[in-house]
Amino acid sequence: MRVPYGRLILSLLLALLLAPTTATAQAQSDDDLPIFDAHIHYNRDAWGLYSVDDALALLDRAGVRKAFVSSTPDQGTLMLWQRAPERIIPSLRLYRSSADQATWTRDDSLLADIQERLQSDVPYRGIGEFHLFTGQSDNIVPRAISEVAANGKLILHAHADARALEELLATRPDIIVLWAHAGMAETPATVQRILDSHPNVWVELALRSDIAPGGRLDPLWRSLFERYPDRFMIGTDTWIPSQWTRLPSLMNDVRVWLRQLPPELAAAVAYTNAERLLTESSQT
Q: Average pLDDT for residues 28-54, to the nearest whole number?
């Protein structure tokens, strides 16, 4: 049977991408820290390009030992978890499709679906990542998931600026929030203010290019990591397929600035803080 030329080329490119290379082996030496990636998605638009095994192989190449995963739709997370349950930590995504991102806070049809999924045999440890804007925390679904998360010891993975985050935190004082992207554009000073005021907030650093511009760790971020050594963790955010393609390279960039931290602090940010968050959230 003749293989279509385009498909043959795509197969060859994927084989080259997923195969180990000398550069990768050098970048990920035996003494490299394992990574717990706190912000992974395996969304529908990635399935056709990367199978479940391909995605797990990319996590291998990036040195990601565990990952906190949510996906649109939720099926993507479940496919990874079913293949690697010891490695994939499922978080319940509220979005059935990308259209839900704009409407979820007022869509009460989600509530029954959320309850049904949480009563399944999937060991969800969080809800999110969800996008939340100022003035939305009083809407029906954010209030409901705050109640569900607090009562069920689930982590709320919130993509929000500082003001929207504080509104969410005001809904219940006992929720635990993982702040996506450290607020995306918030300054280290703002992140410090949030952490000073809210001991129930943890921070992941996906897409924060300002942490180490040009590979050099920014002194303000270094100071913040030293002030709160137990509250930060790594994230990459594979929200589009190209982020999966770049995952090993993105993680190599992260390792560059991790090596500029004291070893114990680097290990905490790379892996142990995420493990600690899972443990502490289950005990609150």
A: 90
Instruction: Look up the domain containing 68 and give its range.
Output: 33-283
Would you say 15 and 8 are in contact if contact means Cβ atoms under 8 Å apart?
Answer: no
In a domain, 22, yes or no: no
- Amino acid making up residue 229: P
Sequence-distant (≥ 6) Cβ neighbours of residue 5 within 8 angstroms: none
In a domain, 20, yes or no: no
Does residue 27 form part of some domain? no
List C-alpha distances in Å: 81 to 88, 108, 188, 259, 273.
5, 27, 34, 30, 21
Please state whether beta strands 88-92 and 126-131 pair in parallel, antiparallel, or not at all (unpaired). Answer: parallel
Structural domain count, the chain: 1
Structural element, H or E, at residue 204: strand 201-204
Q: Which residues contact 53 (CB under 8 A, 6 or more apart)?
A: 83
Is 6 within a domain?
no
**Which whole number is the average pLDDT over 20-26?**
39
